[in-house]
Every structure is written in C-alpha cells, then in structure tokens.
C-alpha cells in the first residue's frame, strides 16, 4: 500500500513564504582557475589568499577616500563594515595576523619570537606561501629599516619568528616585492600571499590618500592578471586605527578577487585580523594555532542564502492543514510529492479486509468533525501501531523510525474520536480528503509561481500551541498540548525575536485576532507597541515598502484556506 505520505492533521503544518525581495543581482562566477593542478591545493572557497596591509587610518577616514570607498561596490568585492584591528601600535597587529595572538609584543621594537605561525599550518598541507615586502633586500636580513627607511621590519611579521628565519627554505619565501610580477608572469603566485607596501605606499610616512592612490595603481593592473586574480580572495585592510583613544579599533577592510561571489555590497560580520587565520585555516582544513584564530569569524566569500540576498522575510502561518490536504493534488509539476489517488486508510488497521477509504480530491473548507489533535491521536494517525498503544488516549510512544510512518490511522482515529458509525463512510472520509486546486486558487497560484516545499514537517505531532512555540523559539519548553491556562503567565524561552533584536534586525508580528508571539515573556519585554501590529499595518507597510526585515503574520484563526 502506498501510504498517505504526509497527512498530519495537526496544529500547524501549512506555511508559505509569500514575499521575498532580492537585494541585488547575482554576479557571474569567474571562470575556473587554469593552472597546473599539481601545484595548487584546491580550497573550499578560494585557491589563493592575498592580504595587503595599509597603515594607521580610522575606518571613516578610509571610507572617504574615493578609491577605497568604491571598492566594495564592484563585482567580486564586498566592503567589511565591522572589521577591527587587534591593538596598538603597528607591530603586534602584524604579529597577530600570522600568529593568532600578539605574543606579548607591545611595541614596534625588533622582536625575536619562536613559535608556530600560519606558515607551519600551511606547510603541513603543502600550501605555498610568500611574504612580499617592498624595498626589502632579501636573505632574511633582520635590519629594522632598509632602503632608506622605506622598508620597516615591524610590518613584515615573518622576519620576527626564528621558526621561519632559522630555516633557509622559509627564508627564501620572504622576498622583495618586485618578485610578485615575475611570479605572476610565471603563473607561480603562491597560495598564501602577504604583501607589505613600503612606508610611503602604505600611508605610514604619507597619508591615506597616498596609500589609496598607490593601492589603485598597484591593484588595478594585477586584478586583470588571471594568475593573480582567478579564484583569489584578496583582503585590503589597515593595521590599526590612527586614533588610539577608540576602544573599537575599527579599520577599513574590503574583500576583492575572483573568489568573492557576494551579491551584497557590505558585510557587517564582526571580523578582525584573526579572521585572516580562521579563513585560511577553514579553506584548506589546516587545523588551528589554538589562539584567537579559533573563535574568529571567517570571511564570507559566497552568498549564503537568506542573510545575503533577501531583504524581507514574510511568514504567514495558517492552521491545521497538512501538505497533502492542501497540495496533494497540485499536479503542475511531477516533482511534487503529493497524492496519486491510490492512497487509502483501512477503517480498521488491524483488519486488512475492512473497508478502504481513499484520499480523493473533494475536501471542503469546514469539515464536519475536527480530527483529534492530541499527541496520542496523531501517533495513531501517522501510523504508529506500537504494542503499547492499545487504545487512545494515554499510551507511551516513540521514538519511531521513518519507515514506520505509514499515515494509515487517520480514518480509524476519526471513527474512535467522534464515535462515527463505520457505515457513515462519507462523513469519515473527510479526514483524508484533499483540496481540488481550483477550490484553493490563491495557494495554488503561489505554489505555481514561486516555490513549494513538500517535506516541511511540524515540530510536534500535536496541536497548535506547541508548534507555534517551536516556530518562534525552537522549543515548546516541554509543552505538548494547547493549554490556554499557560498563556497569561507566558513561556520563558528565548525567541527568534530576541535574537533579531540583539542583531539589530527589525521585526513585527502582524495579526488579525491575536499575535501568537504574545505568549512569550521575552517578547513582552521587547515591547508591544512597536512590534505587535494589527493586520491593516501589514497592508500599509507592504504598500509603502516599509516592512521590517522579518514579518510574522497571524491571520484570524477562523479563516479558511483559499
Ligand atoms: C622600493 O620598492 C618599490 C616597490 O617594490 C620600488 O618600485 C622602488 O624602486 C624601491 N626603491 C626605492 C628607492 O624606491
Ligand atoms: C479490528 O480488527 C481486529 C482484527 O480483526 C478486531 O479484533 C477488532 O475488533 C477490530 N476493531 C474494531 C473496532 O472493529
Ligand atoms: C457511540 O455511538 C453508538 C451508536 O450511535 C452509541 O450507542 C454509543 O453510546 C456511542 N458511544 C459513546 C461513547 O458515545
Ligand atoms: C484547529 O484545530 C483546533 C483543535 O482541534 C480547533 O479548535 C480549531 O478550530 C481548528 N482551527 C481551524 C481554523 O480549523
């Protein structure tokens, strides 16, 4: 017998996202990298990471500079609006970028450190790396200044680690910046690149405007070189804020390169210099240095669905109708996991010869009998004939395997619940009828024109309240029934609305009769006036384009599907 796959006659099962607004065009992915596959270790999100560090500028000042201010607006780029440097002055920030902490370095004096760095992690996985430094003379030369002070050792963290300088092969990877163009020409740019401009180019001895102009002249021609650009993630940032007083140490940062596939212009995740390590570690499964890299936020390189592309989410939650009840006979696509007309329930599940009641396409808006919504009843409806369930109600049940869910007990439970005579088949069969799509034109049109989800399950095989608690809070706090007596005191669990509020994301619960979120103590704390609004506000806000980022709509509980 083909079972009724998903008739859950329980609290809340039919949900539709009716409006999503797309924030920007999806950009074309760049062509796959064309290199000797033996030489590169494919990463999850990129095949090369390049960091270019400029000097001593506050976020707002960097943004005012036209080139820096416009970088995030380009294809394959994104501006990071909440990127923090680690400390002051310069040197410990650079140390932090490759070491995961400042290693007790407080000043810009020459430091000699012996510890593991990102170099160890990279080499463990055979990932090539180089530190390119402008006006550096090579050979692990340790002078604090070289080339008339254009080169400053404090900005090239690799030379301060004996774990690197005592190893000739590693020393050979710290090179004068002029080598970059040779490496590009030879299609031999390493997979991890740390680029240190000189004291004028990075703005240290000049100003942000000079640094930005240098960056433009440096970057633009090289972005056109596939050996540098393709599937590369380039981070442009500043070592620290100019202003020492700010605790935030907020600096400009932007990602650009062939590996950046974001449709948004800005990203407000809380990044820091430690994100460099975390990003690289995750990309190639390098493990970690066990320092501040562990908990850092890795850079997002690709759109990750909802957060990026969607401006508004509107959730409308209806009552008491299963997927198959509503959409079992939506036949415009063969992909929909609906009904075939061959699905039936036996009047008595223990008697294979008892009458078969077929799921037909003639559901009505108001059925003569409400199916039982209690958990014990639902367990019987969805086909759990557990030895312990000798009758309804009150038996023990669960957990069950997926293939035990035969959807075979709706008819039997309906007969039991309402003491219907088995000879009254027309009355019994309402419980498994499905709608004729012509009778629910709105739902049908939404599904046809947008998307329909045919494996969406309610959280609790039970009634309205525990399911609505789950929808807003991911837990019913143990509630398994609809218990009006608990509404006044309210439920204590944290809700999605509190998380949204914490993240500065706007939300409203629009309602026709009652806002379902009012049963949460923590929603009450967030305030009724601004967040719980009658349905006419929803219509007005939708019309004027002022909907919050997340809207939850509670229609009147007496509305029937259409
Ligand atoms: C310093 O480095 C830059 C960039 O690598 C190079 O163009 C320049 O010739 C070097 N020397 C001086 C004295 O500027
Ligand atoms: C269902 O069928 C079983 C097995 O034939 C029988 O023992 C039982 O009495 C029937 N139940 C009802 C309610 O008719
Ligand atoms: C169920 O219906 C039958 C027949 O109509 C009736 O005799 C019986 O009393 C009813 N049982 C209950 C529990 O209402
Ligand atoms: C949903 O089910 C509950 C519980 O049986 C019932 O009280 C309510 O009237 C039903 N709501 C609708 C809209 O069918």
TrEMBL record:
Keywords: Hydrolase, Signal. Gene3D superfamilies: Alkaline Phosphatase, subunit A. Residues 1-23 form the signal peptide. The keyword Nucleotide-binding does not apply. One of its GO terms (molecular function) is phosphoric ester hydrolase activity. One of its GO terms (biological process) is phospholipid catabolic process. PANTHER family: NON-SPECIFIC PHOSPHOLIPASE C1 (PTHR31956:SF1), NON-SPECIFIC PHOSPHOLIPASE C4-RELATED (PTHR31956). This is Phosphoesterase. The lineage of its organism: Eukaryota, Fungi, Fungi incertae sedis, Mucoromycota, Mucoromycotina.
């Amino acid at each position: 017998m083909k079972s009724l796959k998903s008739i859950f006659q329980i609290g809340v099962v039919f949900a539709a996202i009716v409006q999503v607004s797309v924030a920007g065009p999806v950009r074309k992915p760049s062509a796959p990298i064309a290199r000797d596959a033996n030489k590169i270790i494919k990463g999850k999100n990129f095949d090369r990471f390049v960091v270019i560090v400029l000097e001593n500028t506050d976020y707002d000042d960097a943004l005012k500079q036209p080139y820096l201010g416009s970088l995030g607006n380009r294809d394959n780029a994104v501006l990071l609006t909440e990127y923090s440097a680690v400390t002051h002055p310069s040197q410990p920030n650079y140390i932090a970028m490759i070491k995961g902490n400042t290693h007790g370095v407080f000043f810009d004096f020459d430091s000699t450190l012996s510890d593991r760095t990102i170099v160890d992690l990279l080499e463990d996985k055979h990932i090539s790396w180089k530190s390119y430094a402008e006006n550096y003379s090579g050979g692990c030369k340790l002078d604090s200044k070289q080339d008339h002070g254009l080169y400053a050792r404090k900005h090239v963290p690799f030379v301060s680690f004996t774990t690197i300088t005592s190893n000739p092969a590693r020393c050979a990877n710290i090179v004068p910046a002029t080598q970059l163009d040779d490496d590009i020409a030879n299609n031999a740019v390493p997979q991890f690149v740390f680029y240190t401009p000189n004291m004028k180019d990075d703005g240290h001895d000049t100003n942000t405007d000079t640094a930005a102009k240098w960056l433009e002249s440096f970057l633009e021609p090289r972005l056109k070189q596939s050996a540098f650009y393709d599937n590369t993630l380039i981070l442009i940032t500043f070592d620290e804020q100019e202003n020492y007083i700010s605790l935030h140490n907020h600096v400009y940062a932007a990602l650009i390169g062939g590996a950046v596939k974001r449709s948004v212009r800005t990203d407000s995740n809380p990044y820091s210099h430690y994100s460099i390590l975390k990003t690289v570690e995750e990309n190639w499964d390098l493990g970690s240095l066990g320092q501040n890299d562990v908990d850092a936020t890795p850079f997002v390189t690709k759109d990750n669905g909802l957060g990026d592309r969607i401006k508004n989410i509107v959730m409308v939650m209806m009552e008491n109708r299963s997927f198959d009840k509503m959409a079992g006979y939506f036949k415009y696509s063969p992909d929909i996991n609906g009904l075939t007309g061959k699905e039936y329930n036996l009047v008595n599940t223990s008697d294979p010869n008892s009458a078969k009641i077929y799921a037909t396409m003639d559901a009505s808006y108001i059925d003569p009998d409400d199916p039982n919504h209690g958990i014990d009843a639902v367990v019987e409806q969805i086909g759990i004939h557990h030895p312990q369930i000798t009758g309804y109600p009150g038996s023990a049940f669960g957990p069950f395997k997926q293939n035990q869910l035969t959807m075979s007990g709706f008819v039997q439970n309906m007969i039991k619940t309402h003491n219907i005579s088995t000879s009254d088949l027309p009355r019994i069969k309402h419980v498994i009828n499905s709608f004729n799509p012509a009778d629910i034109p709105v739902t049908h049109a939404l599904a046809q024109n947008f998307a329909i989800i045919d494996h969406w399950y309610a959280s609790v095989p039970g009634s309205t309240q525990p399911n609505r608690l789950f929808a807003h809070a991911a837990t019913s706090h143990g509630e398994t029934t609809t218990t009006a007596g608990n509404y006044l005191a309210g439920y204590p669990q944290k809700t999605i609305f509190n998380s949204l509020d914490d993240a500065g994301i706007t939300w409203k619960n629009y309602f026709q009769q009652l806002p379902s979120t009012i049963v949460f103590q923590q929603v009450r704390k967030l305030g009724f006036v601004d967040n719980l609004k009658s349905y006419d506000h929803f219509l007005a806000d939708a019309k004027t384009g002022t909907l919050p980022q997340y809207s939850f709509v509670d229609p009147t509980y007496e509305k029937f599907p259409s």
